[in-house]
Design brief:
Layout: E1 5-6, E2 11-16, E3 22-28, H1 38-48, E4 65-69, E5 71-73, E6 79-81, E7 86-91, H2 113-120, H3 136-149, E8 154-162, E9 165-166, H4 187-202, E10 209-216, H5 230-239, E11 244-249, H6 260-263, E12 267-269, E13 275-277, E14 285-286, E15 289-290, E16 295-301, E17 311-314, E18 320-323, H7 337-360
Antiparallel strand pairs: 1-2, 2-3, 3-7, 4-7, 5-6, 8-9, 8-10, 10-16, 11-16, 12-13, 14-15, 17-18
Helix pairs in contact: 1-3, 1-7, 3-7, 5-7
Length: about 350
């Protein structure tokens, strides 16, 4: 299996399976002399880890990250990166492989069971193996390293829609995101979602969600024309997250309903004598290059495919069967995708920062 890496100058390779002994990643290209400890990473891991509310899977994983390489303590007692690959690992401690024994030879609808088997002739039925969202824990770890590379850039994510229920944008409050279990910037929406998801969870069903990630402090000039576009890499990064089925930058699909007059971001000079965009329909990117405005990316996550309702499927032998997936699953996997989206944004920006630095000297 190839294609377990992403990025160019800041390159991340993840490894491990959902029910294996551990998962991990190797971050290659991290510049030297950056202060980095496990504590710098753990806070982000804690935001993504399962079992923190009744609205996520009850799998109990501490997700304690260990730095295995790429750092050393300097003469002042500060642990810093050395410029060599940074290897990170998290042990799996709460696997319940027996939960999946009944579907060992059955393809779960909506999952990668059939396609993995079709490609490799084998699949890890224990939670999906490499196709499991468990892999995203290491993206979050890598994203924490990436944030250290692009210090001065603020990267924040929020859940803006659960099922058919959207936030009220007039209620947006970034401080509210960490006050509720949904990463919602709208307290009223969070209260509505709690009641809504309680019903979904008790029914053994699931729903999708939309996540918005915003990066502020990115200067104009990051990205490259044609095939190295910043928004191209952002879209690919978000699309690579498990269960993501759509990505948009700025106005995204809504731009199709606007006129040229409405969609164009007009420009004036600010008090400091610098260009100022009067709107941000472009989401901070023009021609694949950042324009200095906040980068705005949204992605849609489909409903969790593991549900208690029986669905029609087949076995590896071609027998028609009904499949009911038991075990511990997220009624809305989009909730824990918020810190994952932030991490992917951070990794892409770290990569483009290093590319830009290499070009301009």
């Amino acid at each position: 299996m190839s294609h377990n890496s992403f990025g160019h100058l800041f390159r991340v390779t993840t490894w491990g399976e959902s029910h294996g002994p551990a998962i991990g990643c190797v971050v290659d290209g991290c510049p030297p002399l950056i202060p980095l400890t496990e504590a710098d990473i753990q806070g982000f891991m804690d935001r993504r880890k399962p079992g923190q509310s009744r609205f996520t899977t009850q799998r109990q994983e501490a997700d304690e990250v260990k730095i295995l390489s790429g750092v050393m303590v300097d003469e002042d007692g500060v642990q810093k990166t050395t410029g060599t690959p940074v290897s990170l690992m998290v042990e799996n401690t709460d696997q319940r492989s027996k939960d999946y024994s009944k579907i060992k030879d059955r393809f779960r609808p909506g999952h990668a069971d059939f396609t993995y088997d079709a490609k490799y002739g084998i699949r890890d039925y224990r939670g999906g193996g490499r196709s499991s969202a468990r892999e995203t824990a290491m993206r979050v770890a890598a994203g924490a390293v990436a944030r250290k590379v692009v210090q001065g850039v603020s990267i924040r994510g929020a859940l803006v829609q659960v099922g058919p229920h959207r936030i009220e944008r007039g209620n947006w409050d970034w401080d509210e995101v960490d006050r509720n279990p949904f990463f919602s910037p709208d307290a009223e929406a969070a209260a509505l979602w709690a009641d809504y998801l309680d019903g979904v969870r008790k029914a053994g069903s699931s729903v999708g969600a939309v996540i918005e990630v915003v990066a502020e402090g990115v200067p104009a000039g990051w990205g490259a024309p044609v095939y190295g576009k910043l928004d191209t890499d952002l879209a690919a990064a978000m699309m690579s997250i498990n269960a993501v089925k759509g990505v948009e930058i700025g106005n995204g699909f809504e731009a199709a309903s606007l006129t040229g007059e409405d969609n164009a971001d007009e420009i004036r000079m600010n008090n400091a004598g610098r260009p100022k965009f009067l709107s941000n329909n472009a989401g901070g990117v023009l021609g694949g290059i950042s324009n200095g405005d906040p980068l705005v990316v949204r992605f849609a996550v489909k409903p969790t495919s593991s549900i208690l309702t029986e669905r029609k499927s087949i076995t590896r032998q071609g027998e028609e069967v009904d499949v009911r997936t038991t075990g511990r699953h997220d009624p809305c996997v989009g909730i824990r995708a918020v810190p994952v989206g932030e991490a992917m944004m951070a990794c892409v920006l770290a990569d483009h920062f290093l590319r830009h630095r290499g070009q301009v000297g």
